[in-house]
C-alpha cells in the first residue's frame, strides 16, 4: 500500500453531504487528484452506528473503499456545546431531522440552552470537531482530527457555509462561520502553517501525512 497519494491518484470522497463535498473538494483542489464522490458513484450511505467521530468516519470510508476498490476519504463532524454535555456532537445531522433542516436544528440547540439559562457568553462555549478517515480497500485506515473553539450565538448570522455555521462564532472573531467567505473560514492553503476551521485543521494533518504536491 502506498503511504501517500500522488497527483492523478483516484480518491473517493465518501459523502453525500453537498456542503462537505464542496469544502473537501476546495481543500483537495491544489493536489490534482482524480476525485469521485459517493453521490456520483451512487454508493449506498452506511448507517452511522459508531459512538465516536472516528468510528463513524471509518464506517463511511471503509464502505466506500470496499465498494470501489479505491482509497476513500470520509469526514465525520459535528457541533459540540459544553452546556449540553457535548450535544449534538456525533448526532448533529440527526438533530436536523430527515429533511436536514439545520434551521430547525439550530433552534433545537437554542431552546435547550435557553431552558438551562445559558444566555451569557461564558455559558455558551462550544466547538466544531472534524475527523477525517483515509481508508484503503485492504482495510488500512488513518485518522486526522481537527477542532476549533467558539461561542454559540443567537440569532444565527450569515448565509454562507452550511449546517450550524450561522450560530458558530470562532474564538478571536466577531463574525460567524456563516458570515465568512470559504477562504477565510478555511484559513489555510497548502504550505501554510495555520488553519481556522475544524475541517481545514484536520485536512492540514491529512495533507502533511498523505498528499504530494
Automatic annotation (TrEMBL):
GO molecular function terms listed in the Swiss-Prot or TrEMBL record: dITP diphosphatase activity; ITP diphosphatase activity; metal ion binding; nucleotide binding; ribonucleoside triphosphate phosphatase activity; XTP diphosphatase activity
Cofactor details (free text): Binds 1 Mg(2+) ion per subunit.
Residue sites binding Mg(2+) per the record: 47, 76
Recorded superkingdom: Bacteria
Residues annotated as binding substrate: 15-20, 77, 162-165, 185, 198-199
Enzyme Commission no: 3.6.1.66
GO biological processes: nucleotide metabolic process; purine nucleoside triphosphate catabolic process
Keyword Metal-binding (UniProt): yes
Species this protein is from: Cohaesibacter marisflavi
A Pfam match: Ham1p_like
Active site: residue positions: 76
Keyword Membrane on entry: no
Listed InterPro entries: dITP/XTP_pyrophosphatase, ITPase-like_fam, RdgB/HAM1
Cellular component, GO annotation: cytosol
Cofactors (names): Mg(2+)
Family: Belongs to the HAM1 NTPase family.
NCBIfam families: RdgB/HAM1 family non-canonical purine NTP pyrophosphatase
Full protein name: dITP/XTP pyrophosphatase
Reaction equation(s) it catalyzes: ITP + H2O = IMP + diphosphate + H(+); dITP + H2O = dIMP + diphosphate + H(+); XTP + H2O = XMP + diphosphate + H(+)
Subunit (UniProt): Homodimer.
Amino acid at each position: 500500500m502506498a503511504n501517500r497519494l500522488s497527483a492523478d491518484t483516484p480518491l473517493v470522497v465518501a459523502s453525500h453531504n453537498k456542503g462537505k463535498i464542496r469544502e473537501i473538494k476546495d481543500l483537495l483542489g491544489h493536489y490534482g487528484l482524480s476525485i469521485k464522490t459517493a453521490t456520483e458513484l451512487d454508493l449506498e450511505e452506511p448507517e452511522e452506528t459508531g459512538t465516536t467521530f472516528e468510528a463513524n468516519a471509518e464506517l463511511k470510508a471503509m464502505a466506500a473503499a470496499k465498494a470501489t476498490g479505491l482509497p476513500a476519504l470520509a469526514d465525520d463532524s459535528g457541533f459540540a456545546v459544553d452546556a449540553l454535555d457535548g450535544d449534538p456532537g456525533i448526532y448533529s445531522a440527526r438533530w436536523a431531522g430527515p429533511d436536514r433542516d439545520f434551521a430547525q436544528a439550530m433552534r433545537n440547540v437554542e431552546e435547550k440552552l435557553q431552558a438551562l439559562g445559558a444566555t451569557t457568553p461564558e455559558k455558551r462555549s462550544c466547538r466544531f470537531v472534524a475527523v477525517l478517515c483515509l481508508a484503503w480497500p485492504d482495510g488500512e485506515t488513518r485518522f486526522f482530527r481537527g477542532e476549533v473553539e467558539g461561542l454559540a450565538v443567537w440569532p444565527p448570522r450569515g448565509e454562507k457555509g452550511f449546517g450550524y455555521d450561522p450560530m458558530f462564532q470562532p474564538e478571536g472573531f466577531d463574525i460567524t462561520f456563516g458570515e465568512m467567505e470559504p477562504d477565510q473560514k478555511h484559513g489555510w492553503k497548502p504550505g501554510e502553517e495555520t488553519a481556522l476551521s475544524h475541517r481545514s485543521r484536520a485536512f492540514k494533518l491529512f495533507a502533511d501525512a498523505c498528499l504530494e504536491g
